[in-house]
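About this split. The held-out portion is used to measure sequence recovery: a designer receives only the structure tokens and must propose an amino acid at every position. Recovery is the fraction of positions where the proposal matches the reference. Here is one held-out target exactly as it appears in the evaluation file.
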């Protein structure tokens, strides 16, 4: 069974995204936020967890937009090449 390249790219992206989200060290991004998260976790506060998720959200959103833009660009280029190839054969 042969999968299209777009499906393979999407699968790899989702796999990497899941690995990054569930990795324990990703919860605290920068040193200052990590210090706040650790002190908040020791006190039993949930604010530190919210800070960590907000950082993760803000960090991944540009990459998601980049991947979507790259995918659209790739599909348009593929369609243009396919159409120009069929026009040359006629």
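Reference sequence for scoring:
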């Amino acid at each position: 069974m042969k999968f299209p390249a777009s499906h393979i790219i999407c699968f790899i992206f989702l796999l990497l995204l899941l690995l990054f989200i569930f990795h324990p060290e990703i919860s605290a991004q920068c040193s200052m936020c990590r210090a706040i998260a650790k002190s908040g976790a020791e006190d039993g506060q949930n604010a530190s967890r919210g800070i960590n998720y907000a950082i993760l959200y803000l960090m991944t959103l540009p990459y998601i937009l980049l991947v979507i833009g790259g995918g659209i660009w790739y599909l348009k280029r593929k369609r243009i090449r396919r159409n120009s190839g069929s026009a040359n054969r006629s």
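Annotator remark: The two ends are 31 Å apart (CA to CA).
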